[in-house]
Write a structure and sequence with these properties.
single chain, about 140 residues, mainly alpha, two-stranded antiparallel ribbon, 7 helices
């Protein structure tokens, strides 16, 4: 019985994390100047802001739809590792890097388990018949 429901577990993570990363990526674009100033202040070049924002937007969408979610979960986990080591580590755990570490844990779970139920990946996999994809 548990295995019946276990395929729904990644769905919860995908939807919540997809929304979080999509909103944060869009926010970086909408507040480009402020974000560039912050990145410069913590020692990162301002020119990486559009790249990080785009990764978070595309990664968020990928998680929401469940296609390419393993690779984007991995990329977003690296994004959060960089955030921890560059901006949050000196702040300590509580009030510092606890949120990013929680995101990493969930993202690694998606990398290991795959997108789960209600994903484009599972929809495309279910259309395969005898090793041939139906068109």
């Amino acid at each position: 019985m548990m295995s019946l429901y276990s395929r729904f577990s990644p769905l919860t993570l995908r939807l919540v994390f997809g929304i979080l990363f999509l909103i944060h990526g869009v926010s970086k674009f909408n507040q480009m100047t402020v974000t560039e100033q912050f990145f410069t202040k913590i020692g990162l070049p301002a020119g990486v802001v559009p790249f990080v924002a785009l990764i978070e937007i595309i990664g968020g969408i990928s998680l929401l739809i469940g296609y390419g979610s393993r690779i984007f979960a991995f990329i977003l986990a690296i994004d959060m590792l960089v955030a921890i080591f560059v901006a949050k580590l000196s702040m300590g755990f509580v009030g510092g890097y606890e949120f990013e570490l929680s995101l990493i844990a969930g993202l690694v779970s998606i990398v290991l388990s795959g997108p789960g139920a209600f994903s484009l990946k599972s929809a495309s996999s279910s259309r395969k018949v005898s090793g041939v994809t139906a068109k």
